[in-house]
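User: Hi! I'm a student and our assignment asks us to look at how structure tokens line up with a sequence. Could you show me two examples?

Assistant: Happy to help. In each example below, the sequence comes first and the structure tokens follow. Example one:
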Amino acid sequence: MENVIQIVPNEWVTEDLLIALTGLKPGTIARARKKSWLVGREYRHVSPENDPKPTSECMYNRKAIDAWVAAQKQPNG
């Protein structure tokens, strides 16, 4: 019998968990960070020293990203 782990995510999640929760692909996340998302709203850089750099790991605000997905324009048709 396999173990099943149920996760109740925090507001801020890692990229791996964001992918699992939303189905977004890593490339989509990277492009959205560069073109659409704002630091502090959809994502933020984090570091153990509390001094993140632009290359530091990112955490993602899943609620803000859900709102971003919901606000997407839909193609005509």
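Example two works the same way, sequence first and then tokens:
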Amino acid sequence: MARPDKAAAVAELSEQFSQSSGAVLTEYRGLTVAQLKELRRALGENAHYAVVKNTLTKIAAKDAGIDELDDLLVGPSAIAFVTGDMVEAAKGLRDFARSNQSLVIKGGVLDGQPLSPDEITRMADLESREVLLAKMAGALQASLQNAAYMFNAPLTQAARAMGALQAKQQEEPGKEPEPSDAA
């Protein structure tokens, strides 16, 4: 490969590292082209899966400020560049790796922090961002409803007590209210 081609490849990889929120490094040895196509579909629209050259990827990662991948770039490597929800991509990789033992998750990077294969698997076990946000919104709404109830409870109890006193006085029409000591 000519030098300008390598420089262009490094620039493209560096740009992908910079634009993605995370990247997962895998070993794809033993997968067919059809299986790689299936894996790309399993990752969803928020991830771009590319087979990479290790030396060029090391240079591109350093250019993007990522030094954590150097030890992982050994053997046939491919990277899933994730621009959206990292959990969705991690689930796609985990599920594909379960049915295709040839795919090995080596590790990754999320917002500049290194991830081990176990951390990626644990991330895949999380619920999606939308589900977590919905649960949080539900919890906040329940807290607000409880707070509103607590603020209204004393007023409601006082109103009920006043209503009960008024009803009691109306039941006993012959009895006049007791005069106060101030008169």
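Here is something you could point out in your write-up. The chain has a mean pLDDT of 82.
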